[in-house]
Amino acid sequence: MGSAHTIQRGGTVTVTVPKVDLIDGAAMPQLGFGVFQVGDDEAERAVATALENGYRSIDTASAYGNEEGVGRALRASGLPRDELFVTTKLWNSEQGHDNALRACEASLSRLGLDRLDLYLIHWPMPGRGLYLETWRALEKLKADGRVRSIGVSNFTVEALRRVIDEADVVPAVNQIELHPYFQQDGLRAFHRDHGIHTEAWAPLGQGHGLLDDPALARIAEAHGRTPAQIVLRWHLDIGDIVIPKSVTPSRIAENIDVFGFELPRRRPPHRDPGIRHGSSRSVTFRAWGTSGGAGRVPAGCASRRCR
Ligand SMILES: NC(=O)c1ccc[n+]([C@@H]2O[C@H](COP(=O)([O-])OP(=O)(O)OC[C@H]3O[C@@H](n4cnc5c(N)ncnc54)[C@H](OP(=O)(O)O)[C@@H]3O)[C@@H](O)[C@H]2O)c1
Questions:
Q1: Smallest CA separation from ligand 1 atom 47, residue
Q2: What is the pTM of this model?
Q3: Is 64 a catalytic residue?
Q4: Could you give the CA distance from residue 14 to residue 278 in angstroms, rounded to a whole number?
Q5: Spacing, Cα 136 to ligand 1 middle (Å)
Q6: Ligand 1 in contact with 203 (CB < 6 A)?
Q7: 210, 216 in Cβ contact below 8 A?
Q8: Is 33 in the pocket of ligand 1 (CB under 6 A)?
Q9: Measured at the alpha carbon of residue 244, what is the angle toward residues 239 and 62, in degrees to the nearest 5?
Q10: Alpha helices in 144-294 (DSSP H)
Q11: Does ligand 1 lie within 6 Å of residue 35's CB atom?
Q12: Alpha carbons 99 and 83: distance in angstroms, whole number
């Protein structure tokens, strides 16, 4: 773990968000803000609220259609560029070497920026056979200073291995679906072994099901926190970069208020293999130490291998 940014919020509340050191030496806030499925004007409002609440890392994508709104909010905040960490992603139709170079310029122009902090290939699309030449274009953008760090999203072990074996730059992150119902242990272990940071999308399970889990409610009650805060704390404890999305001001504030408490640091008795659906759901929460009944508190993965 690297440095941290500390923000004075509302004149009284101080938020300190840790930063992780990426493999290329850049530092990225461990908790940021996502804007998937948010229209352009709503994204402007949500990002403005997020910045007021201390978020400094914003995750958008060319495919979200809201880079202009995000850019307006960034400019209106008056925050120095160096305090901000902006990620966007290259969409599937933008793959290919020259397409990718053009796509990055188009995203920069919509965001109103002259460089990105992190640029990701949104999906590998192995059937198209273009992700490697697309990655070469991202390497060029990095070398040219248009992008500070480059990474991928939704890449499998196979696709990652190919990039690592055949290209020059190791992806700084792989942004993948990850939450307590879908823990992706195998992929996370591969990331760990290759210096790639895991960034969790849908960290709250996109708001469905997970946040209504009765075991999670018991854990939240035991800590005097909300289910979303417990889930975000769990992500932070296992070392993920996490980018929860909300357009609701109270939730935007709630989701960054996760640094004032801890979950017990003990190894879970059994790890969840990554089950999304069906009756095994609550296995995840039993693994956090709730099987003995309400009031017991969860354990994030305490082992060094999980960090
Ligand atoms: N790389 C990819 O392929 C990919 C795919 C999906 C997402 N992402 C990125 O990851 C970010 C996060 O993922 P996501 O947006 O899919 O899902 P998410 O952050 O897991 O969940 C967002 C949903 O949870 C609700 N929510 C947020 N905070 C809450 C709280 N404290 N209590 C209760 N409900 C809460 C939101 O509702 P309201 O907004 O109504 O408050 C929204 O419906 C995205 O915004 C995007 O930047 C990337």
A1: 34
A2: 0.90
A3: yes
A4: 41
A5: 30
A6: yes
A7: yes
A8: no
A9: 110
A10: 157-166, 185-194, 214-223, 227-237, 249-256, 283-285
A11: yes
A12: 30
Residue 38 and residue 306: Cα distance in Å, rounded? 32
The domains of the chain, with CATH numbers, are: 4-266 (3.20.20.100)
Say how many Å lie between the CA of residue 115 and the centre of ligand 1. Answer: 25
Residue 235, Cβ density class (10 Å: 0-12 exposed, 13-18 middle, ≥19 buried): buried
For residue 271 and ligand 1, the question of a CB distance below 6 A is answered with: no
**Residue length of the chain:** 307
Centre of ligand 1 to C-alpha 243, Å, is 8
Distance of alpha carbon 216 from alpha carbon 227, whole angstroms: 6
- Given a contact cutoff of 8 angstroms between Cβ atoms, the answer to whether 180 and 211 are in contact is no
**Terminal alpha carbon distance of the chain:** 9
Ligand 1 atom nearest the C-alpha of 244 is 19
pLDDT in tens, the chain (307 residues): 667 777 776 656 688 999 999 999 999 999 999 999 999 999 999 999 999 999 999 999 999 999 999 999 999 999 999 999 999 999 999 999 999 999 999 999 999 999 999 999 999 999 999 999 999 999 999 999 999 999 999 999 999 999 999 999 999 999 999 999 999 999 999 999 999 999 999 999 998 889 999 999 999 999 999 999 999 999 999 999 999 999 999 999 999 999 988 887 654 433 444 433 333 344 354 445 443 332 222 333 323 222 2
Residue carrying structure tokens 């960490």: 85
The residue whose C-alpha atom lies closest to atom 39 belonging to ligand 1 is 246
Beta carbon of 92 within 6 Å of any ligand 1 atom: no
Which of 245, 250, 254 has most ligand 1 atoms within 8 Å of CB, for mutation?
245
Q: Whose CA is nearest to atom 5 of ligand 1?
A: 201
Rounded to 5 degrees, φ, ψ at 303 are -70, 150
The CA distance from 192 to 185, in Å, is: 10
The Cα–Cα gap between 237 and 226 comes to 17
